[in-house]
Design brief:
- InterPro entries: AstE_AspA_cat, N-alpha-Ac-DABA_deacetylase.
- Strands 1, 2, 3, 4, 5, 6, 7, 8, 9, 10, 12, 15, 17 and 18 form a 14-stranded mixed sheet that branches.
- The chain is 19% helix and 33% strand.
- The chain has 355 residues and is α+β, with helices and mostly antiparallel strands.
- It is globular, with a radius of gyration of 21 Å.
- Strand 3, helix 2 and strand 4 form a beta-alpha-beta unit.
- The longest helix has 15 residues.
- The chain folds into 2 domains: 238 residues, Aminopeptidase (3-Layer(aba) Sandwich); 84 residues, RNA polymerase II/Efflux pump adaptor protein, barrel-sandwich hybrid domain (OB fold (Dihydrolipoamide Acetyltransferase, E2P), Beta Barrel), CATH 2.40.50.100.
Length: 355
């Protein structure tokens, strides 16, 4: 039986100005046309707009720049359904699937190569309408969506892993410090400060270059602790409150651990069966160095091929692979931070952000 939607087809966006030019206290959807594919399909990106009854800032929610990062798409759907437009001041612009080609193939990069460029879309912003397909999609978002935002939350996770931390830029300028404080509203237990601009062409890097407050929300996955959906929605409400878009105070932790320097991406060395020793309870936990996190076993010979251990004296688990399953060489297993020299910071007190 074929499912037929009762929703009207979303119109193509004719100009960037049209995106925010909708009635107050209303929802709208648009298509961002990108290109005609060889199959005859018109490739486009769907954008949802929710405008409150009163004027205010514009917050952007973007997910699935990488096609296997689907938790953000899920949370954006829930968040848009939960908005009370009568009491909303301003506008929420949501892009649940920024890279529909990668989403279709379930891959981090754009497609699988035979009819796509197989690029990492989060390395090509602001893109180019005359470039590879990844660049064309990035350009459609840059030209029609990103420049109209006051703040942006960009969601990332993996397909077979679970993740929960905030990644911030190590820039020490006054504007960067303001952005760091804005990131703290994500209310994760762990914050990692990386080098200044370690990757070029990210969507948040492009947004920050335009003066837009931006957050890399490393959260979600295939197995999550109970209540994680509600926690993620509360985090979005933190930003709505901080921007003055809804009433109330954000829900923030009493302390957060900030780390820099040591951060290890542990990959699967050999393919086989993956047996986790530390499950989802290890996410956002600090474990002793040398703790066995998982093993990879050859299903043919039963040989233990790899034993993955916590690498630091105090190892903070940013990302874990909590479920049993088949793995291939090079698959992600864990992202671990060095908590040995972590700095504990008190609850964010100045949480209101005037734009």
């Amino acid at each position: 039986m074929t499912h037929t939607s009762s929703e009207p087809a979303a119109p193509a966006l004719k100009s960037p100005k049209e995106l925010l030019d909708i009635d107050k206290a209303s929802h709208a959807q648009f298509r961002l046309p990108v290109a005609r594919r060889a199959s005859g399909e018109d490739l486009s990106i769907r954008v949802h707009v929710a405008k409150g009854a009163s004027d205010g800032p514009t917050l952007g929610l973007v997910a699935a720049v990488h096609g296997d990062a689907v938790f953000g798409s899920h949370i954006i759907r829930l968040a848009m359904q939960r908005l009370d437009l009568t009491n909303l001041r301003g506008t929420v612009v949501a892009v649940p699937v920024a890279n529909p080609v990668a989403f279709e193939s379930g891959t981090r990069t754009t497609g699988q190569g035979w009819n796509t460029d197989m690029n990492n879309m989060n390395r090509v912003f602001p893109g180019s309408a005359e470039g590879w397909i990844s660049q064309q999609m990035a350009a459609a978002l840059s030209e029609n969506v990103i420049g109209q935002l006051d703040a942006l939350i960009d969601y990332h996770c993996g397909a077979d892993t679970s993740i929960n931390y905030t990644l911030i830029d190590g820039d020490k300028t006054q504007d960067a410090q303001r952005n760091i404080d804005f990131n703290r509203l994500m209310a994760t237990d762990f914050i990692y400060t990386h080098d200044v601009n370690p990757f070029s062409g990210t969507i948040t890097g492009h947004a920050r270059g335009l003066g837009i407050l931006s957050v890399v929300a490393e959260q979600g996955g295939n197995i999550l602790p109970p209540g994680f959906d509600e926690l993620s929605l509360t985090r979005i409400e933190n930003y709505l409150k901080a921007l003055g878009m809804i009433d109330g105070e954000p829900v923030l932790p009493d302390t957060q651990l900030v780390m820099s320097g040591g951060r290890t991406l542990q990959r699967i060395r050999h393919g086989g069966l993956f047996y986790p020793e530390v499950g989802i309870e290890g996410l956002s936990a600090v474990v002793e160095g040398g703790t066995v996190l998982s093993r990879v076993v050859d299903p043919h010979s039963f040989e233990v091929l790899q034993e993955i251990r916590a690498p630091y004296e105090k190892s903070a688990i940013f990302q874990t692979r909590p479920g049993f399953g088949q793995v291939n060489p090079g698959d992600y297993a864990y992202i671990i931070g060095d908590a040995t020299k972590a700095v504990e910071i008190e609850r964010l007190s100045s949480w209101r952000f005037e734009l």
